[in-house]
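Exercise 3.2. Students should predict the tertiary structure of the chain below and write it as structure tokens, then compare their answer with the key that follows.

Predict this chain's 3D structure.
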Amino acid sequence: MGLRRIIVLLVAVVAAGATAMYARSWIEGQQNNVALAAAPAPEEIYEVLVADAHLPAGTFVKPQHLRWQRWPTDDVPDTYVLKGARAEDAMVGAVVRRGIAEGFPITDGSVVKPGDRGFLAAVLAPGMRAVSLPINATSSNAGLIFPGDRVDLILTQTLAGADGATIRRVSETVLRDIRIIAMGAETSDEAGEERNHESAKTATFEVDPRVAEKITLVSELGKLSLSLRSLANEHAEAPPADEEEQSYTWDLDVSRVLRSDHRLTSRLLVLRGSDAQDVQLQQGGN
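Answer key:
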């Protein structure tokens, strides 16, 4: 009987220990569940398109101006460009409407895109005007002039001589260092086969109001050509202060035939009453 009691006692002790361990494990499990339920859910992170540098108003947005930046989802307005929802190049080619500080998100409201109303006005610097001139492949350097380039404007005129019969031709640089902001309807300054401007019919310039008047006038005087300026010495050459110092070239300066004393001649019979006189005329003479 003593052995039986010992066995029963041992079984009771083992059962009690097992029950205690189970109870402890259950309590710890419940505590863990409560802790997990009370812990905040991990914050979801998106990437937002932002300016990689300060972009002043009127800046054409290029790929190097943009980068993706991590942004918490609880503070992302619908106007922000999210990675995965829209491509990075969705803003490339747009013009900054108002200045965007470095690191700030770029939204549809902060830029204006080609074709949008007010796009050309956003391109213009404060106080400047846009004025267009008709061009062709020859006058625009075979389509190799792009928006953003700076050019001189050359006017070629055909004039009557002092005698009213002689024809003289002259070319002169009437405007210097003016910025092109559009070739045809294309305003991007990125060169490429898809942006060949040889077929452009107009060039649009950014000028002050006074120069806009001059461009409108010279377009009525003769043939206009664009002379592309080098980027290496941009703004280095100041325009002459005196109009008399501006560059011009007469036809006699470039043609030896017109300067020659052996130009073609013709004869004219002049009758004065009963007198007749044979007069020799030089073609193209002064």
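Discussion points: The chain has two domains: 45-121, 126-259. The domain at 45-121 is CATH 3.90.1210.10 (Type Iii Antifreeze Protein Isoform Hplc 12).
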